[in-house]
Amino acid sequence: MKAWENVNKRKDELWAKIVSAMPGDAEREILIRLLELEVENRSYAQPRIRGPLRKVVEEKIR
Amino acid sequence: MILRNLRIKNFRQLAGENRIDFATAPEKNVTVVLGDSGAGKTTLLNAFVWCLYGNVNMANEEDVLSYKALLDAPIGSKLALEVSLVFENDGATYTVTREAEYRKEDGGKPTCLRGPDVRVDKVTATGTTTSEPDAQRFVDMLLPKGLSGFFLFRGEDMEEFARQEAAAHLRGGVEVFLDVKILDSAVKHADQVREEFEKELRQVSTGDVLELSNRIAGLTADKAEQEEKLDEAEHNVAALEKSKSEVNRKLAEVEEARPFLEQQKSLAESIANLDKLLAERYEALNSIVSRDGFLWFAPDVLDRPDALAQAAVQRGELPANIKPAFVDDRIALRKCICGADITEEMKSRLLEWRQCTGLAGIDEEIHSLRSAVKDMKVRREDSWKAFGNQRGLIAETLRQISEETGRLSVATTTLHGRDFGLDYITKLQEHLRGLVDDIIGAKTSRNRIADRISEIERDIATLSAERNKKAKGQEASETLSRRIAAIANVGTSLRAMRDGWVSIVQEDLDGKLKVTWHEIAQLDRQVGFTKEFRLTMKELGGYNEWVPAAPSQANECALSIAFIASLVRLARDMHQAGRGAPASGGMLFRGGEFPLVMDAPFAKMDRDFKERIPEGLRRVVPQIVLITNNEQWKGVIADRLGPYAGKSYVIELHRPGDGEDGKQVEFLSQTVEYVVSERGIIRDWSILKEVKR
């Protein structure tokens, strides 16, 4: 179990490093919303992501 | 996912209702299923796959309904096809059932009336029963199909994991494990939205911004083209590495075969020498026969003169009692031995009689003949003894030849009649050299393309930054530029996350593989799972340094098994530690305890591996279902795994025959029907039978 906790810890660190390297909050929010959209749509053969994602970007970057 | 039982009804060869209860106790966690060639071992493995995913890797996928069940059913009747797997997971008991219904039509062919449909029923620890609303999704979450090949596998395919060209397959497996698909999908959608904004920007912008946008579009198109080329180059490298791997394996075969080749050579020489010796011994035997053989077949010839002489003695004819010199002496003395005078008349009769004593010469002749005959008899005895000895030596030589020929036959069978001559090896080595050069060339070309892509990406980034500057003040263009930059950043972050995440787990798997190897194999080898997703094995060379181990089937199988056991551990760790970081988007695959269902996994291992790996594997993984034939089971594997077999079954194969040419085998100290010869059937069918101990 410790091994996987260590893996997850490294993953979290990686994630934190990548997110902190992003230039702004807007990008971070787009990234998280995009992943949420992917999870919500994962069981659909034709996921509806492009439209909602575009909207998110338009909302966050005005 | 600890397997409880599997019920199979009318699936392929397995006609009627069949059931396996799996061994689950920690110290008896092995279920052994024994089946002859053609009995349905792969069918059993396919029954798992069909139950879970609805398809199997068969040429005639639609032909899953049992032929025997169809043949036995009356026209117009309905037939059920069903496979049902019961397992435990997280304290609940699940039953996955996939079933279909058929009707037998006039021509004897089946029509599918319903299904195949899948359902998953769940019974919780408190006894609550529910059905999963989306059964297939549930199965895919529990064990994604992309991973099933690692847990339910055919031993024949297993060694492929350890080959150079398997990197993509292993990477794919790890990616399914980590649910990287969701990150890939996010990257794809981010790119699509970016492309839409780019298009809009080109429509609304003017001047420098438009020019820069067009240049970016050109570079993006160029990048897409280069990416296609990169894909092609990757395939090319993989194909060449596959060929290299093939050649290396053939060279390893030569290496493996070397002791047998040497044995074959030495046996051939030994047989030639023995043949020569045999010829010499036959020569010696011939010589004895031709010199003295006549003596053995004519005992009368030697005995007759003696017998005749004896008879003459008996009759008083021989020997002549009075020798001629005695008669002469008496005549000269004129006195008989009785004292009476010898008259002229008597003298004349004595002289006459003396003539007859010429027989006394015969007596001497006979004496000398008897002496000669005695010599001949001794010679006959001696030669008879010599003949017997020589025949013994010949029999011994023939026995040696037969023994050596038997050994030669074993060595030749082991070599499968393959030609491992110098020409063959030289050609392989030349081919290998050519392939190494080709791989270097292909990799250089691939790297050049990858460099070109990086260069294009840098150019796009530079131009994008420049465009952002130029777009300032032009409201529509500025907003679109910023949106493009933002979504491009999102894509870059996702890619970095994806690669970093896979790399972290690759390192973890590398560590797990090393530990697992030492636990299950206990052999002095260095194994690894590289950044390129390749399995490697090194062994100690002649100069006490680690050198790559021969890519033999035995090594590849052992390494693959250790890797699979590492994946089992990874799944267990994942499950015990809970799901991954929420930022990853939540993983579909949650890990868990997984059994290994293996069809003939140890067949290609050498004795050293067989001694250790099966038993070691049993300790590392929670449950093993071993499907094997008797040849592969008996001996080392039976010795090592037999004590841990909690459940055992035989797939009894029924084959058309005269009812008498069946086959029984010894299995776990019992005699079981292995192949049943059955009158009146035209095609094989099988049935699973438990072997109770």
Any overview of this molecule?
The complex is a heterodimer of chains A (about 60) and B (about 700). Chain A is mainly alpha-helical. Helix content of chain A is about 75%, strand content about 0%. Chain A is built from 3 helices and no strands. Chain A has helices spanning about 1-20, 25-40, 50-60. Chain A starts with a helix and ends with a helix. The mean pLDDT of chain A is about 85. Chain B is of the alpha/beta class. Chain B has a domain at about 1-145 and about 595-690: P-loop containing nucleotide triphosphate hydrolases (Rossmann fold, 3-Layer(aba) Sandwich). In chain B, about 60% of the residues lie in helices and about 20% in strands. In chain B, strands 3, 8, 12, 13, 14, 15, 16 and 17 form an 8-stranded mixed β-sheet that branches. The longest helix of chain B has about 90 residues, at about 205-295. The interface of A and B includes residues 10, 42 and 61 of A.
List the helices and strands and how they pair.
The complex is a heterodimer of chains A (62) and B (693).
Chain A: H1 2-20, H2 25-41, H3 50-60
Helix pairs in contact in A: 2-3
Chain B: E1 2-11, E2 14-21, E3 30-35, H1 41-53, H2 67-72, E4 78-89, E5 92-104, E6 110-123, E7 129-131, H3 135-142, H4 145-151, E8 152-154, H5 155-158, H6 167-177, H7 181-204, H8 207-296, H9 299-315, H10 324-333, H11 344-356, H12 359-414, H13 422-471, H14 475-520, E9 525-529, E10 535-540, E11 546-548, H15 553-576, E12 596-599, H16 607-620, E13 624-628, H17 630-633, H18 636-641, E14 645-656, E15 663-667, E16 670-678, E17 685-690
Parallel strand pairs in B: 3-13, 3-14, 8-12, 12-13, 14-16
Antiparallel strand pairs in B: 1-2, 1-4, 4-5, 5-6, 6-7, 9-10, 10-11, 14-17, 15-16
